[in-house]
Amino acid sequence: MFFRLLRDNEIKVHELNYLFWECTTRCNLHCRHCGSDCTVQSREKDMPLEDFLSALDTLPKENVPKDFLVVLTGGEPLLRPDIETVGVEIRKRGMNWGMVSNGWFYDEDMHSRLMGAGMGALTISLDGLEDAHDWMRGRVGSYSRTLRAIGLLAKEPRLSADVVTCVHKRNLTSLPRMHRTLEDMGVKQWRLFTIIPIGRAAADPDMHLSGGEFVSLMEFIKSKRMEGGPMKVTFSCEGYLGRYEEKVRDVPYFCHAGVNIASVLIDGRICACPNIDRDAFSQGNIYHDSLWDVWENRFREFRDRRWTRTGSCATCREWKNCRGGDMHNWHDGHLLQCHYAKTLSTP
Fold it and tell me: Inter-axis angle of helices 211-227 and 175-185, to 10 degrees?
């Protein structure tokens, strides 16, 4: 009850503190779970830096909190030749910036250059041990380069850094060995998530956990959190988890999309998280709207979730806690998957 009151107040205030920029849709890998269908030669040109900065400059300085973070995503952000300039320009505005990367290009020279440009946060994806990771990423050698990148982030005290893992059928049983590997490398936070059935992953059976497998994942995370240790293991913000809520997360579930999180997509559209159904939930476009005005006055579907009380959600007694799950899972007008329902399964 108390948390729901806090959540409702957070929605009312809707302070923007996390902004994704889909700065490119070019990518050097061909991941099986890609929701954006990124390729080396993308259909979309990289957004010019000055266009994004113009949008960023609509945010009033007095309304930008100290913890405000711009996160570069893609595609693979390191394919942009101006990546250092991007970072410097964001820092000039008194804002923090970070990046999500597949790690392929992240060597010592790149690390030094990005730290020099003021990077403060970094997320690297590791999707299994060598065979599973390279299979998932579609390129031999990806695993070794990812470990190189993880080694660099783990040793950098100035970074707020984590490793994320997409859990699928081919790496589920490898999680204990992955945990040992990352902990031995000095990683401080490991974040696990599962696949949304969109993009390339929609019809790939190897990508999706059964209800029992999902419960096994919850039990793994719960056990590692109970053991403690130098590396924190958490589940992502995907959806409400019922009996596992505070056992696999630090705080109860709350989808912050459109409440504290926004994104500028490659074509200028303004949305919440980049993987949300952009055709259905885009709120405007930086080429004809003020980013700040859109943030303040739109995002109604994200802040008032009563519209989700349909289908199986209409009679669910947990709706007051779940509010229809996370916005990532609403595509084509319906909920793709219910994490709470999965937690009722037997491992």
Answer: 30
**High-pLDDT (> 90) share of the chain, %:** 86
* Residue type at position 290: S
**Per-residue pLDDT, 196:** 84
Taking the C-alpha atoms of residue 37 and residue 32, their distance in angstroms, rounded to an integer, is 9
What DSSP state is assigned to residue 17? -
Output DSSP code: residue 19.
E
The CB density around residue 103, as the number of other CB atoms within 10 Å, is 28
Structure tokens at 87: 């970072």
* Under 8 Å between Cβ of 309 and 324: yes
Q: Model-level pTM? A: 0.95
Contacts of 74 (CB under 8 A, 6+ apart): 22, 23, 24, 25, 26, 27, 36, 38, 100
pLDDT band for position 42 (50/70/90)?
low
Distance CA(70)–CA(307), nearest Å, equals: 30
Residue 37 and residue 327: Cα distance in Å, rounded?
Answer: 20
So what's the pLDDT on residue 31? 86
Which tokens belong to 66? 């100290």
Range list of β-strands (E), 85-133: 96-101, 121-125
Q: Are 250 and 234 in contact (CB under 8 A)?
A: yes
Q: How far apart are CA 124 and CA 160, in angstroms?
A: 12
In angstroms, the CA 183 to CA 185 distance is: 5
Which residue type is seen at 182? L
